[in-house]
Batch of 4 targets.
Target 1
Amino acid sequence: MQSTASHQLEIYNSLSGKKESFTPISKEYVGMYVCGPTVYSKVHLGNLRTFTSFDVIYRYLCHIGYKVRYVRNITDVGHLENDQDQGEDRISKKARIENLEPMEVVQKYTYDFHGNTRKFNLLPPSIEPTATGHIIEQIKLIEKLLNNDLAYEVNGSVYFDVVKYNKSNDYGILSKRKIEDLIHNTRSLDGQSDKKNPQDFALWKKAEPKHIMKWESPWSNGFPGWHLECTAMSNKYLGEKFDIHGGGMDLKFPHHECEIAQSNACFGTNAANYWMHANMLTLNGQKMSKSTGNNILPEEIFSSGSPLLSKTFSGSSVKFFMLQAHYRSVLDLSNDALVASEKGFNKVIDAINILESFKNFSKETNFDIDKWSKTCYEAMNDDFNTPILIANIFEAVKFINKVTIGKAELSEKGSEELLRYINSFVFDIMGLEKSDQSIKRNNKLDKVMNIILELRNDARINKDYITSDKIRDLLKENGISINDNNKDSSYNFD
Ligand code: AMP
Ligand code: ZN
């Protein structure tokens, strides 16, 4: 493990409801499964917040030296309109509406998802399995559950017997719900008459004749239930017990509770040691969601296509906005918040640019880089606390800006060290990028500033101090300080 990461990594485990020291099952390896998108429509910024949270977690685990197998699935069948097993399959419905083959729908929105993960600079997972590619594995699990007498077949459909399971296990261990409350709160919906208990969930559903996505099975021509795919794929690629299982907070119940039940019923384990949940991105105080339409799509931020936004934003500025909140906190998106975050992000990039081209070294560095980097690692080791990490990075930005106006000292060695750490935290761990725009902006601004400095210099040579002071004061009012300490004047952002 990386020596600088002297503190033990702690992860908030939704199963225990507290932070726990992270100890992987195999010393140097981590197995992590994250529930991927249901590819029946475009991903929105809420989805991307969850995938960004797990991208940073994946990046950090790799950074501190673990070899991580990161599995993130694509749900391309089985997710019904109502999470409680009712309604039409989301992909089949979209295929019917758009007059497409279901696999065309899947392909179209998988492309959309991948395009946006690239624009958001999210690393690809090690394995990206699809539910339809694992029907055989899902059928095998159902057979196992039937053999273990924790599932039953009715009219070609198979259900998980939650009440029976709960007699020797704890259904509700993750979501902390009580089965008695669930019995009272589960409405009797169409088609539930097949179930012994309303809270039982489908493992296999017999397809109606008009249903287009169906496979042969020992019970009927049908399709698997949504919760089963993740148990089948996590088990296949990570084993009966692995380290981390993640997803958005809204998946805790029923999806992850059902996964835990399936895994216990098949293998006698809770599937993962650490269950992690990323909190929701909201818009106008309401959860961003595909089905309600209360969302902003990534293409809308890149092209200013949303009436809620005053301008375009790069993927990295939006990510910076997201990472300024802890992954377990709810975050509300607004134009003002994005504008403020972009400003902050530009300050960080400007400081990195200054550091990269800085030459005016001193003998000493009067900033404790070692202590500062430890504080950054402590933040990340404290359940991936990116807001604290970013606050620390701003401390370094302040120092860099002081150096440029001659109010602090930086040695060549210190400059290399500081740049190495900042690059690690900003680019490798948080996965932020200098956008083309920011590079262009920086180059152009630099050119414009050099012209202004030259004009001001001419004014000074001509003893036109009224003009030269006016230029300096106007720039200062706009957050740009001119430094006349050197032979050639330079500038920096306040
Ligand atoms: P879905 O495509 O609906 O299966 O969701 C894909 C992932 O995005 C899941 O982990 C969800 O929990 C997550 N997700 C959905 N809506 C939001 C939201 N508003 N904020 C954050 N994550 C979300
Ligand atoms: Zn899942």
Target 2
Amino acid sequence: SLTQRLSGTVERLRGRGRLTESNISEAVREVRIALLEADVALPVVQALIQRIKVRALGQEVMRSLSPGQVLVKIVRDELALVMGSQAAELNLNVPAPAVILMAGLQGAGKTTTVAKLAKHLKDKRKKKVMVVSADVYRPAAIEQLQTLAGQVGAVFFPSQASQKPEAIVRAAIDEARKTFADVLIVDTAGRTSIDDAMMAEIKALHAAVNPVETLFVVDSMTGQDAAVTAKHFGEALPLTGVVLTKTDGDARGGAALSVRYITGKPIKFVGVGEKPDGLDVFHPDRAAGRILDMGDVLSLVEQVEAQVDQDKAKKLAEKVAKGKKFDLNDMRDQLEQMQNMGGLSGLMDKLPGVGQLPEHVKQQVTGKEVPRMIAVINSMTKKERRNPDLLNGSRRARVARGSGQTPADVNKVLKQYQQMEKMMGKLGRGGMKGMMRGLSG
Ligand code: GDP
Ligand code: MG
């Protein structure tokens, strides 16, 4: 799958020192194959690859991030961008009733989505929702909607197979107005493929109801065809968004990447199951993260990137590389950076597996410990910080008093310092980079 391929690529880059033209091409080739295998439309693949390449080449790899992480971030950003970068809300900002018109091929999931949307609007946005079926062709289509409406607690406006679709929707709008419904969702008929009569009918319906949202419902399992069908509909109807259904059964995941790029319309929801609660608001950034299967590790990368003071990290790395001694000033810098990142606890919970560690183990390196350690170091003189060997018994006692900690606390800080110092010596040239890589998993 797309996910497996991309994470494999990232895995291979993990050990590399930096992004070079050759390892970028190698990785980009993998990404390309992964996208094509996921049935992403070719123009979309080409555009994505081009952008990823340009960005990766222009990227100065930050000391704190490994090349794999940098590449993941670039790929993730670009995937999100091609899917729209931000969640697109439903617009209900019109005098009630706000009409939502559903369009799409037969079997795409329109009727099911009407019920899901009704539930969503009822539960999440406290709307009074009425639904109506203008599908006078498919046997039992109207009853199907009636049953679903009953399940989700939406008002069902009855219609007959003998009526004209336009007449049905006009009557429904009148009723919605009279009964003060906030939203009216109009279900329509689909055909097995696009034909002129069907397009003419949905256009006429659109003109009759003047919807604030016209949503194109499409089966994600049709892969890049999803985008092509959406494009055709988009040429006939002013679509305001797309609902991608059956993503729960779609292993390839390419449709989401093609739809936005090819149609220019945002994906607003994804269907994630047959039941009325199987609907999710579509978040391009999260979807991109899921495609890469990196989940919270990515937000961790962002955190490290945002919070680590690049200058200090660089200075320390240089210092260690030159064989200079790691002193208590350096330790304090690092502790402050940990604090900036919300303590290690914030970081640890994001690391796969680590979140499950027993509480007392986490406590040791998190919470109040870091500020206390900083307080101890602050109570030392400049000279002591630069040369910790000076800290004999009486000096330690003074530091303890000055920082409001016990002498045992001071000893603990010094012991941790010794461990860090030893580690820094071992890391040598890898210095800060190695350390941050350790931190960011
Ligand atoms: P319509 O012809 O466009 O109205 O399609 P329907 O709403 O009748 O749905 C066709 C089939 O797809 C039904 O069996 C639905 O249960 C199923 N379906 C719709 N959306 C989803 C979804 O998100 N996930 C899954 N697994 N099935 C879905
Ligand atoms: Mg239907």
Target 3
Amino acid sequence: MSDHVAIVTGGTRGIGAAICHKLKGLGYTVVANYGGNDEKAQAFSKETGVPVAKFDVGDYDAVQDAVARIAEEHGTVDVLVNNAGITRDGTLMKMDREMWEDVIRVNLGGCFNMAKAVFPGMKDKGWGRIVNIGSINGQGGQYGQVNYAAAKSGIHGFTKALAQEGARFGITVNALAPGYIDTDMVAAVPEPVLEKIVAKIPVGRLGQAEEIARGVAFLCGEDSGFVTGSTLSMNGGQHMY
Ligand code: NDP
């Protein structure tokens, strides 16, 4: 059991919701952030008892205000899971500047904004856990996703750099790179494309959000104190280094 306070960005759906369930079950006080889907967030909160906080992780000032309010209400944030993410897919030829900037701002900028807000409190406490959700497509690239692959690849670099800064304060910083997981994000992939993707996954299926949540829980816990700057790949064997 843990008495730590955790924020999970994009915690009201998909992988984030599974992470919230898992951490709450382990005794963490969990707050789930979300971006705009109020109906989904309220339903999630009602079902799980997890409080929700609406703010755009890509908006620096909004993040600082929201995290300060959460800390006031629940206590210093000990655990941050940077999970919020979006896709705006298209080949370079079809990708406009807005599609590029949106994805970099939310997926990568969100990690910076959130880390800025929680790092000082963790440093003062001498303990903290930051887990950044990367992607198999940040590791290997993906056709039609120069924005998403760049942002996710950036998360892996961000993780390794911040891990070096956090280590002497008892703060670990790790990334978890999921493969294809059965969520709304993957449901948006056209069926024929998805069939080809699944055919390339050695275990022969999509991953489940709960499986990712178990990996995140390890990286958030006391037992992972010697793990920092690492990337845990959970992809059914689709991409191996
Ligand atoms: P979903 O699309 O199911 O959920 C995304 C969550 O992020 C929602 O809660 C959404 O809130 C929130 N969100 C989106 N934009 C913002 C924003 N600007 N500010 C705050 N919250 C925001 O995603 P998944 O569960 O599929 O993915 C979760 C993470 O895992 C993402 O980072 C994704 O890139 C990564 N990932 C997913 C894979 C997969 O196969 N599903 C594979 C590899 C990585 P709202 O409901 O309000 O829109």
Target 4
Amino acid sequence: MPETAVPTFPLSRASGCPFDPPPRYATLREEEPVSPIRLWNGQVAWLLTRYADQRAVLADPRFSADVTRPGHPAQSAGVQARRAPDRLPFIAQDDPEHNHQRRMFTAHFTVRRVAAMKPRIQEIIDRLLDRMEAAGPPADLVSAFALPMPSLVISELLGVPHRDHGLFQRAARTLVTLASTAEESRAAAGELADYLDHLITVKEREPADDLLSSLVAERVRTGELGREYLVENAILLLSAGHETTANMTALGTLALLHHPEQLAVVRDSDDPARVANAVEELLRYLTITHSGRRRVATEDVEIAGTVIRAGEGVVLANDAGNRDGTVFPDPDRLDIDRPEVRRHIAFGHGSHQCLGQNLARAELQLAYPALLRRFPGLRTTVPDGELRFKEDMLVYGVHELPVAW
Ligand code: HEM
């Protein structure tokens, strides 16, 4: 692999538009779709920027998601520090073990299960908006709505008391902060693991009607799932379940505020299919998982004319793939009526495709219209230049979003 003049990942976003991925992606997609990048620890990996190549790799078993394999490109020192081979969550394992564990969770996230949760999700949304309205403007949309909404939903689903949200939100935040040190990440993960381990003990004694209780009864007691794996997967669900949707809620609202005509459609449309399409387009346009999908080759594989050797890491920039003009014409434009937008890879692709996508869709489809209807005059109170965008986190978004109405 070439070693000279290799750019450092992440590449700079400085393009003037906070919703656009690094401008260099466009040139790379055209000229060097498989290009070397240097990671935080000096490791050189391959950056893939084309949609078709990314889908091919994500569906190819010769690329491993096992984070303990030599060459797997970790996102940060903190992420690397958490690589314990004896208790990996299924997102970090390969089939057949990945599939064996994932299957135990899928039944809880089907379209039908999520449809049954919708009235409760709507109630949570309405209650948060009531509170925000009663407190009056101004408000920080992130802390008043975007973060507590998915956090309450996933806590209820798992059976995690939301009164403990201070603990799990703080720890989850440490885990997604790129600058967290190995010690900080280990401590945060340890705190979460102790907390969930204790909670599982409570569920063993007094089962309730929630996901953790049912997994304890049906999978842990039967010996099918080790208790330590339930703890790790619960951490995965708890953090993936609120960080991502929270960022989509706040950043998506900001993107709509920049496109008032499209915002009016999301607010006023009584066609759920049109709102659903708008959500897909926001997912594509914003692709908040900007640190890329990470894999390591287990054999030599040729992609777009470049041979990736066994043991070399790849970073699949799905934010670049979702702006690939050969798949999405005029890709840098937000168009909530864009046809065939569900082909986007904001939820990944292949066997690791997001387990919570039905839930995330339901939350966003309910949240944007409810928020915009409640506050038809919603506006930000500071210019974009003063907002703190999450370039320092594994998942993109805004740290705060000061609004009034
Ligand atoms: C996997 C994005 C919401 C749970 C993934 C992956 C992406 C993603 C890109 C693929 C990871 C890979 O290939 O390495 C998102 C986005 C969300 C969201 C953009 C919200 C807008 C959620 C929610 C949950 C969740 C609400 C919780 C229930 C998971 C899990 C995996 C995953 C468990 C691992 C799946 C596997 O490895 O088989 N997500 N996600 N996600 N997501 Fe999400």
